[in-house]
Amino acid sequence: QVQLVESGGGLVQPGGSLRLSCAASGSIFSLGAMGWYRQAPGQQRELVASITSGGTTNYADSVKARFTISRDNAKKTVYLQMNSLKPEDTAVYYCNADIRLVLTMDRMEFWGQGTQVTVSS
Predict the structure, then answer these.
(1) Closest Cα partner for 60 from 71, 76, 44, 42?
(2) How many CA atoms lie within 13 Å of 57's alpha carbon, on the beta-carbon side?
């Protein structure tokens, strides 16, 4: 089994910062691309940022210059530093990872359980 465990969400005032973490564990042979998605009430889940195993990043236009995605391959962890937060950033944030499994060598996509980020005064 593989687990993605997120942490770091919470309530923050507009203009504030939060750092999300997502640690992968289990029967992992290799980690491919990892990313963060978010889903606001009544909205579809959308990509926030992604990062390849080699460190190439991609961001949604709405978060460019405010959010930074990074990863520590040794710790099997991906981070999302969120600065200058706005009320419209309020959503449940989900971690996503492309993982090759140890026993079968199959590549599968895994999701975390989600962490709530609320930006409000």
Answers:
(1) 44
(2) 17
